[in-house]
Specification:
Elements lengths: L1 E3 L2 H6 L4 E4 L3 E2 L2 H11 L4 H4 L1 H7 L9 H6 L1 H6 L2 E3 L4 E11 L9 E14 L2 E12 L5 E12 L1
Parallel strand pairs: 1-4
Antiparallel strand pairs: 2-6, 3-6, 5-8, 6-7, 7-8
């Protein structure tokens, strides 16, 4: 985990890859729970047998939005800002899913600090996050994630 101790240190990291996260394994159970939570029961995500036979991926794949939904967990486990009292998710600028995430894959994030803007009581922080699959040749998700931190 990367610990950032001050606002000055945070601002000095703009334009740099700040951290690479730990790997997370995407299980069928996680995919099934996401399908239940969202109502997205498309067979390429939850029907293991049909996906083995008919899917171009040779098996089930994670929902793109499941992959995206892991960003807060990934980021929280990767960066600590000890000077921050509170952080909130402010949104996303751009999201793409260039490659699928086959169930059983491991993914991790590469986080580059794009921008730090002062706001009342804190800062608005924009991260460029690239999620990559272990052994994959293309990213599985590329996103600009915006959060607000309050001091």
């Amino acid at each position: 985990m990367r610990v950032i101790a001050s606002v000055e240190e945070l601002k000095s990291l703009v334009g740099q890859e700040v951290t690479v996260t730990d790997w997370i394994t995407i299980s069928q159970e996680r995919v099934n729970l996401f399908a239940e939570a969202t109502g997205d029961h498309q067979w390429i995500h939850i029907d293991v047998e049909r996906s083995r036979k008919e899917s171009p991926y040779g098996g089930t794949i994670a929902h793109g939005f499941l992959t995206l939904s892991l960003l807060p967990m990934i980021m929280e486990g990767a960066v600590s800002m000890s000077m921050s009292k509170m952080g909130v998710n402010y949104g996303l600028n751009k999201v793409r899913f260039p490659a699928p995430v086959p169930v059983g894959s491991r993914i991790r994030g590469r986080m580059t600090l794009k921008e730090v803007e002062d706001i009342q009581g804190g800062a608005q922080i924009t991260w460029s996050v690239t999620l990559e699959r272990d052994g994959g040749d293309k990213p599985v998700c590329v996103a600009e994630s915006i959060s607000r931190r309050y001091w």
